[in-house]
Amino acid sequence: MSGPAASFDDLRDLYQEVILDHGRKPRNHFRLEAFDASARGDNPMCGDRVELFIKMDGPRIGQASFLGRGCAISQASASLLTEAVPGLTPDEARALSARLREIAKTGARDDSTPALQRLSALSGVHEFPSRVKCATLAWHALEAALDGTKETSSE
Amino acid sequence: MNDMAPRLDVARIRQDFPILSTTVRGRPLVFLDSGASAQKPRAVIEAMTRCMETAYANVHRGAYHLSEVATEAYEAARAATARFLGAAAPEEIVFTRNSTEAFNLVAHSFGRAMLKPGQVVLVSEMEHHANLVPWQMLRDAGLGIGLRFIRVTDAGELDMEDYARHLAQGDVGLVSVTHMSNVLGTVTPAARIAAMAHEAGAKVMFDGSQAAVHRSVDVQAIGADFYAFTGHKLYGPTGIGILYGRASLLEAMPPFLGGGDMIETVTLEHSTWAAPPARFEAGTPPIIEAVGLHAAIDYVNAIGLPAIEAHERALVEHASATLARIPGLSLLGTPQDRGGVFAFALDAAHPHDLATFLDRRGICVRAGRHCAEPLHTRFGLDGGTARASFGLYTTEAEIDALAEGLEAAREFFA
After folding, report:
1. What is the ipTM of this complex?
2. In whole angstroms, what is the distance from residue B139 CA to residue B174 CA?
3. Distance, in angstroms, between B379 CA and closest chain A CA?
């Protein structure tokens, strides 16, 4: 059942167009001039790195940006994150992060909101256990930033 | 390939390795990660099984037949390893868990007891973390022992002038460098390195984890004081490493770990130490693994290192030419003397994406920094590289499959 064609489908599931697009042209890829929270996520095994910056707007996240280096998955995930969290309260952002990690781990898409639908592009990583941590790195950094922790790792 | 060189029948050799006939997602396995750990021939698998089925007991203990048989097999493995490395006597071979433990043993025992405050350990920028971190720990132990680094040239070779400058400072107590880089493939001029170290009054240790697999090693001809390698890269089992130490040094060194087997007499208050190598082998040793290592050495010897070397030279030549034709690919290092290891970066894809992509075609390459983070920093490649490394069963067709995979990856990720 798993001939060359199947393996190619696997790859297309992992590297969906939105992932390749965000990997090549990451959005919000800069350091915010003024930010209220930030944290760095490091993947010591592979050297992937994401540094996240959060600016609050009252009780809600106003803007998010990141700097980083690493594989297409880790950078696309960070890029998608910076588009997904503005407008959310820290608690809502944490809940979104928990959902994302679930999607990455189980591969079950979640189309209940437009944001989750978009993030479900990362569901393909569940087929690649060694790559799940690439998808979750930026989200670990998000939680660390919201918790006031400066560094984290997805190991 | 030189027509006079001994030939190696790869097709026949591949039949000795059961795993090589398996498929990955319907494609034949193309295993290009032997530098991380090599696959095992049936001879090794069967020797270990036979040991457990017919000849197993703890060693150096029971005065019963089975224990004597096991002890003989364990010591025969030591003797075979001594011959494999050209050591003067089996007593110069200490079995450890892996190369890493061999370095920790020397750092802890020789380093703490025999290096003097103000002396320096000299390593290079291309070391595996196994030959770096133990020396950092020694430096930080508060004994006044320093740590310095020999530069690596842009070609990925040891900068011998920089090495001479370090030695000229007169404070180097131990030089510890790789005999073959696990990233660059560079084979270092071991005999020259040893002669220069000795002239400066320093001892010298080599990391032979890669070299011992690809080249015939003679520790006496090299002039090594210590030489480390590991069983699992030599087609043997995991869990057994080898430390060669010159007898006069091992005899003067205190133990590393304490426990059973490494003592002469024990009272509740004190113990005296057994002679080497037992002094450095506390507790039940890797008995089954030693039997597997012995079988691996016999297997490699039967093929012959000259034939293996010739085969790998041909592979290196083929890979150098093939990889050079791939647009957007940059090879890390261009050493004159190179073993079958190629680290590279591809413009279109991060090493991890590349490894995942190739994996889907049945091709196993390693991605990352290969336990040599400072070396990647030295070459400005903090994101890591992908690495293809060869074994005696590697074929030119597998290198061609890698090349096709890399071209396809360029299209996929472009």
Report:
1. 0.86
2. 13
3. 15
